[in-house]
Write a structure and sequence with these properties.
- With 838 residues, this protein is an alpha+beta fold.
- 29% of the residues lie in helices and 24% in strands.
- The chain contains 23 helices and 35 strands.
- Strands 1, 20, 21, 22, 23 and 24 form a 6-stranded antiparallel sheet that branches. A 6-stranded mixed sheet has the order 28-35-31-32-33-34, with no helix packed on it. It has a 4-stranded antiparallel sheet with strand order 2-27-26-25, with no helix packed on it.
- Strand 33 and strand 34 form a beta hairpin.
- The longest helix has 29 residues.
- It starts with 8 loop residues before the first helix and ends in a 5-residue tail after the last helix.
- The N terminus is likely disordered.
Length: 838
Amino acid sequence: MYKGRTPNTQRETSNIQHPPPNIQWKTRAHACAIGCWVLGVGCWMFCLSLFCLSLFAAEPDRDSPEAELASFKLPPGFEIHLWASERDGVAKPIQMRWDARGRLWVIQSVTYPQLKPGEQPNDKVLILEDTKHGGYADQVTTFADGLMIPTGLEIAPVSDEVLSAQSLVLSKDGASTSATKHSALSTEHSANPSACYVGEGPKLWLLTDTTGSGVADKREVVLRGFGTGDNHQNINSFRWSPGGELMFSQGLHAHARVETPYGITALDEAGLWRFRPREQRLDAFFGGSADPQNPWGWTFLKWGQPLISAGNSGNMYYASPEMIRGFQGGRRESIWAEGRGRKTSNPEIIESSHFPDEWQGALVTGGYINNAVWTLHVEQDGAGFKISDDPKLAPLVQSAHGSFRPVDVKLGPDGALYICDWYNPIIGHYQASFRHPDRDKVHGRIWRVSYTGRPLVEPPPIAGAPIEALLENLKSPERWVREQSKRELAGRPTDKVMAALKAWWPRLDPNDAGAEHALYEALGVCEWHETPEPALLKKVLGAQNAEARAYAAGTLARWADRLPPDFGVVEKLADLAHDPDPRVRLGAIVAAGNIPRPESMVVVLSAATQPRDKFIDTALFAATSVLKPQWEPVLAKGALDWKPEWREVIKTLDKPKPKPAPAKKVAQQMGTPIVPIYGRVRASPYIVGTMAADVLKRGDANHGKEVFHRPELACLTCHHVGNEGGNIGPALDAIGSAQPPDFIIGAVLEPQKEVKESFETMRITTKKGDELIGIIVAGNDAEITLRDPAGMEHVVAQADIAKREFIGSLMPAGLTDNLSPEDLRDLIAYLTQLGKAK
């Protein structure tokens, strides 16, 4: 529409220049000929213009949501559509969480990976809403801004004090306090106070909107002192446990010293955090340099078992065996044997009636390296679990678009699955310059996956619902409904919640198939409120379902110092230590390790004489280590109450204590690589650019695979691809979807140019003069474990190290010197397609 002035026709007509009056057309035919010529020229010029426009027309925008949408491949019956994008203000989203009102909260960072000189950080927390129920976000509110690379987000229960204060403010405007409070909770969603936890660098923030405006007007630092050695390893992936504990993680280069009411809580290198807000108690687990070196994502199975994603390696772990307060520095096996370098983050368990029956219980997770959302199968493996690619279900989403980076997946209130797409062609943190022009700073999407032919879920009212209705929601088959109802209950007055719960759970029908799970959920409500309910705990400890009993063992330890003396805490744990189900025995061992009493060791030793597996063994060693100050004096006095065989058992569980950590570790130095640094061909910009263009134009990946497997190159001696290869170098299964061709070419021609994190070769010289060379695969303040080029592992005490040198990569340059140009080109072509959707 033309929005300027209305043209003055008379004025414009008067300005037309007519030919001078002395010019006459000689003949009408002449005039017609001239007219035809002019018309012909005009037509020719018009056609030429169209040709030029088509020649120089802009190419389709590969970064548009439409272009990315066209790249998606889903199983039959599923569909995906855009729910929010950069057009709505979403840019570089990192994590997302739903609240009880059906609003999606998102943290995003355009600052990552680093501020530019003179730049002010302005990363944000957004709230996205579908107010018109149109299937997409139509309202976006900035809840908080001015942040710098926030990496963790979780919705916080709004405390009674905030609600009371807000009700008081509203009541001054003429409404009664009680009526206003009910309205604010039930109908006027925009007037509700709300809050969230945010991890930002060294701080754990609680951001609160006390007025219901949708904008945080109160910012409190809850805890500070978290490590910031590498900003993509800062505290991240926040998630509530079933019992109201805020769980999160940190990576390899973080060293944390956090002050709490219970003293300083320390965690060095990669590990897990557990924060209980009402107690203000912070616990740290794992620690050290063993995998997961960058844990990024928690999920909980139906009965509360915690699973951890390793964002650095494509592994997953079962955390429970080591979650004993005071134990750190262990080492564990991945439960996803087929991970093959498929790095993932922030998984979700499908418990949604919108999904077909065969999808219930499936684990879906964002495979940001491979541009996919994987579908995995979880099954019991003795006392723990194992994960595999689902044999019957295809990956939920696969994309041929290299910028599709799903970093979080979560079920929504409608039962559909929502995908947080970080969208970036560059995923590596240090493999490309922080100032690389291809680092995307403006795009970001939220996608919604639904199943055609099945109705969406209509969730019950949760925000502002009566306590009795929220308790009934605990029986829902919908994971989203149960989780939101428990968090809503956590914000209600404890006395009212507990009174209603005590009346509610005894009325559950014991013949109902879901009764014991409802009891488990009710136990979680009590834990959220840090209020023991002995009768309920006793009921769950005696449940028919073994997973219920295993969970209750942990609750028993959590409440051990608050239960009545006649409850018989240790006696009940001793019974669980002889349970026929290994998952329950594992729960008993971990629970005993968290109760620092001499008699707790009796539980551990009793369980140690029962059938064992790798999960139970891990817990036995951890509990024995932590409880040593309790049992060692007892043993020194003869341990008269112990069974004779326990004396031998404890010798196998009490690992030799390593030498004390030195007051100051030996500083790491730069050494000289022990392999050739350069070959005949250097990775110059011209060589790399020319080769990359040739790879894209003429590369033959099938021939390249044959080149990769040639014995003289020995690629599989160090690197793992599929089900073959070594573990001295990085797995290459996802190298093509993780890195651009120019990076891969540079890494092949000049391996020392870029050494992948955790595969740096170290030369360790001991005080005795021994020299060891390899990569560090585990370590803590007391000792390190080094894997040598032959795959053998060596444990070295930190106190015995005289010199520690970084000597680059074990991969020599020049390996490809004898390849023909075509062979080298095709080798790169093979590597560049690894990990990409077929």
